[in-house]
Write a structure and sequence with these properties.
Belongs to the NAD(P)-dependent epimerase/dehydratase family. It comes from Yoonia rhodophyticola. There is one protein chain. By secondary structure, the protein is an alpha/beta fold. The protein contains 8 helices and 9 strands. It is globular.
């Protein structure tokens, strides 16, 4: 590709993607609302920009082949907090991509778009939306936006419903883990697959206890290699037996399924402090 754009580049997941994505294009543009990283890769340019500013997004995507859209507030919050970056920002990315004649949007969606489904249902990529939060609702909005822009305007999209892309630190993650290496592979396959149309795929590693079915996304060529079963015995021994009546344990959204709307779900995930952005 001549030009590839990554939004949310200063975030935890975006920071892991900068180097591998920079190797897939001649010109790599990373962007976020905060100040940029201290050092840039040889073909990288950083642009500080607000997703809620349509004109800024149109300028940002000028001349690009594809955009990898990871920019957003990455947690549940009041609707008013999410409206600009997560809802309006998604519209601005797809509209700017359409105006600039991009081929594809690769989008960091989330399991929270279907978070109120039960884990025992082993849902596929065609499961109907059942958001668990305003955050999940924003993911549903963006997925429907992606579907509509494909149907009406011919703009391809891959919506990656990421489960738990962090170190395995709780019982839920034994099934939902997405390793950083598998994340990179997932994004790369979403970019280099020749034809995607509108596609949905779950971002999860090759876990023995994965609670979702990716069989209808085989055309993307995503074949995860890591398996969280290696952590199962230790994680289960460190935690008390789970309450089978708590939605946080029985539904795909985990704690996002049980928290009040507008309150942080990330605060209940027990993330490892080592899961930080790589922006030095």
């Amino acid at each position: 590709m001549k030009k590839l754009v990554l939004t949310g580049a200063a975030g935890r997941l975006g920071s892991y993607l900068r180097e591998p994505l920079s190797k897939m294009c001649d010109t790599f543009v990373s962007t976020d609302i905060t100040d940029g990283p201290k050092t840039l890769f040889e073909n990288e340019t950083y642009v500080k920009a607000d997703l809620a500013d349509l004109d800024a997004m149109v300028d940002l995507l000028n001349g690009a082949d594809m955009v990898v859209h990871f920019g957003a507030v990455g947690d549940e919050a009041p609707f008013e907090t999410l409206l600009g970056p997560n809802f309006v920002g998604a519209y601005n990315i797809w509209e700017a991509a359409y105006r600039n004649k991009l081929r594809r949007v690769v989008y960091a969606s989330s399991i929270h778009a279907v978070g109120m489904h039960k884990k025992t249902d082993f849902i596929g990529i065609d499961a109907p939306h059942r958001p668990d939060t305003f955050y999940g609702l924003a993911k549903c909005f963006a997925e429907d936006l992606a579907s509509m822009y494909w149907d009406k305007r011919g703009l391809e999209s891959v919506c990656m419903r990421i489960l738990s892309c962090a170190q395995v630190s709780n019982p839920r993650a034994v099934g939902t883990w997405l390793s950083y290496d598998d994340l990179i592979q997932l994004v790369q396959r979403s970019i280099d697959t020749p034809i995607t149309g509108f596609s949905v795929v779950y971002g999860v590693s090759n876990n023995d206890r994965a609670p979702v079915d990716n069989s209808k996304a085989q055309h993307l060529g995503y074949r995860p290699k890591d398996n969280a079963e290696q952590f199962a015995s230790e994680i289960y021994a460190q935690n008390e037996p789970l309450d089978p009546h708590d939605p946080a344990n029985t539904h795909h959204g985990g704690p996002f399924s049980s928290i009040p709307l507008g309150e942080s779900g990330v605060a209940h995930l027990n993330l490892n402090p080592d899961d930080t952005a790589k922006n030095d």
